[in-house]
Amino acid sequence: MPKISVEIPEELLEDLDEHVGDDGKFVNRSDAVRASIRKTLDILDEIDERHDRLGTDGGDEPDE
User: Fold this and answer.
1) How many CA atoms lie less than 13 Å away from 64 in the CB half-sphere?
2) From its record, what is one biological process in GO terms (predicted)?
3) 36: number of Cβ within 10 Å
4) Which domain holds residue 37?
5) Taking the model in full, what pTM does it have?
6) What span, in angstroms and rounded, lies between the C-alpha atoms of 17 and 2?
7) Count of domains forming the chain
8) Which residue(s) pair with 20 in the sheet?
9) Which pLDDT does position 58 carry in this prediction?
10) Which has the closest alpha carbon to 60: 43, 48, 46?
11) What value does the CA radius of gyration of the chain take, rounded to a whole number of Å?
12) How far apart (Å, rounded) are the C-alpha atoms in residues 64 and 6?
């Protein structure tokens, strides 16, 4: 699995960390970030679909 590096504000990292660990929803930061990315992309796909911006192949080209 490829690795990436991102810079985020301290406040956002603290908020993320509240959801990670034994008492949190995620095992580690990576799991939390992956879940957040998936959820965001799903939401964006739903918005694009409502506005007929998704092609039939799921790409970013609209249907003609």
Assistant:
1) 0
2) regulation of DNA-templated transcription
3) 13
4) 23-53
5) 0.71
6) 22
7) 1
8) 26
9) 52
10) 48
11) 16
12) 37
In a domain, residue 9? The reply is no
Q: Which two tokens stand for residue 2?
A: 């490829």
28-55, pLDDT tens digit by residue?
A: 999 999 999 999 999 999 999 888 887 6
Which one-letter DSSP state was computed for residue 57?
Answer: T
Give the residues across from 26 on adjacent strands: 20
- The owner of tokens 């509240």 is 18
Residue 5 lies inside a defined structural domain of this protein: no
- Only one residue has tokens 């959801």, namely 19
CA 32 to chain centre: 9
pLDDT of residue 52: 84
Q: 7 in a domain, yes or no?
A: no
Confidence of residue 61 (pLDDT cuts 50, 70, 90): low
Dmax of the chain from CA atoms?
A: 50
